[in-house]
Amino acid sequence: MKLVVATRNKHKMEELHALLASWPVELLSALDFPEIPEVEEDGATFEANAIKKAVTFARATGCWALADDSGLEVAALNNAPGVYSARYAGEPANYPANNAKLLRELSGKTDRRACFRCVIALSDPQGHAEIVEGRCAGHIITALRGTSGFGYDPLFVPDGQTQTFAELPADVKNAISHRGRALQAAHDRWQELFMTRGAGSPAHKEENPATPSRGRGFQPRGIAARFKSPMKNNRQRTTNN
Ligand code: IMP
Fold it and tell me: How far apart are CA 225 and CA 228, in angstroms?
């Protein structure tokens, strides 16, 4: 069974290969489908962007598809930069400029709380999607520290640590990061789905009332239950429209 990851980022693919090693899936990436254009991340939420990417790739390829969207929310800035994290200081995306803007915006503020969020969406080939999320809470310091990582890492100290993400070893960051937690949640939540579903089986079982759906179909649980469709057939939020 093929699972397409809607990313052209090789680093993300390596992380996924390691984490999903036990799944009986053949992982493909957006690089395997150059004919599919870049999906514009114009949603107002991480959820909307992740679902849009996953559904676009699932429908275009006829395979199951996985996509993520992540960013930083800062309490004193009404959760900015949020979905605009990559281009906070404008186009083109620029990490030093983003960090400089964040420090400017927080100048003089005592509330430095911030939270990294990562949402991962999984879509079946028909475009029915559900999500999991990982969060990492911490605070923004007043000057850059550390050289590893990327993005806002040199300014972010996670709760329970004294070093920034850019100072911590990569394995420590990965174990507690929003992305690490979201990937772990994805693994926990969807492993069974891929273990029990054979290649080529229909995306949904409810067409056949004799088939028990719980634990076998694509049913709402936990966070994803927020996206439960108002339709009576118990499908997840659909993005067919
Ligand atoms: P993406 O959705 O994973 O591409 O992340 C969007 C933006 O959020 C990135 O360009 C970074 O600015 C920021 N970001 C996401 N995850 C991290 C992280 O782990 N460390 C630092 N910045 C991050």
Answer: 5
